[in-house]
Give the backbone structure.
Amino acid sequence: MPRFSIIIPVYNRPDEVADLLESLEAQTVRNFEVVLVEDGSTVPCREQAERAAAAGLDVKYFAKDNEGRSIARNHGMERATGDYFVFFDSDCVIPPTYFETLARELDAAPTDCFGGPDAAHESFTTTQKAINFAMTSFLTTGGIRGGKVQLEKFVPRTFNMGFSRRVYDRVGGFREMFSEDIDMSTRIRREGFSISLIRSVPVWHKRRGNLRKFFRQVYVFGMSRITLHLLYPGSLKAVHTLPALFVLGCVALIALGIFASPWWLLPLALWLVAIFIAALVQSRSLAVALKAVPASCIQLWGYGLGFIKAFTIKILMGRGRDIDEEIRLRKGK
């Protein structure tokens, strides 16, 4: 019986799955099985799964109707045999010592649930690297996605997350909703299980391939934060409101800059310069630093606008959690 069961939901991403499986083949230890769940894809990855299996990787491939990634993960957990479930997104690439390090860390400090950080591999495009910066920089997200400095309790995300079978038996599976990983982490913590950040097990996360798709992603993240607030009153923290305040502040500064004095635009200019310098220092790439500026603006504006819309509709207008809208947006993937 494997120690770890890797659960991967897949929707029309055979090329990315090929890269992910190749990185799992290269692991220094193979104390795991891979459970691939094809969620109604029109472009399946069965061929990639069979190739990896022929190369000696323990791969179980399941195809089902399209119902959403949470239900796909649950489908995989129901068929997994490991003692510990590990979740990756299909657009991740796993460093070769990941499972060797993970086993050592869990032996030294057992935990019921863990999460790890994500980063950009040197082979990624400049856009992917810029988006990675926008999603992980303290200047944009406040370090809430596994960075070195955090403004709230660590919350594992399903691009790099795991929990024990005991957790699954008590808490159950993922809900089909946006930010389902935050929902799951909240339920795990409320059941009294331990949650740890293991910094030594990062993944390389490709994220969205262009800025338009990135805007849509973070816009939905902003909307789902209000849904989580309605599900778990008291879970909304000051850090979650910062993108919305940023948007409102930008609008005010731009208006003052146009109608009062251009000096009101100075704070925005200084922030953009700070983004550029931080991205340049981190990436050592002028191209990445230049793209990090619009990517960071999109990260904050997209999330902020989604948050403001959901707050207006679901709280101020009293419509609550709009399930139909979430389903519509989900199917627009």
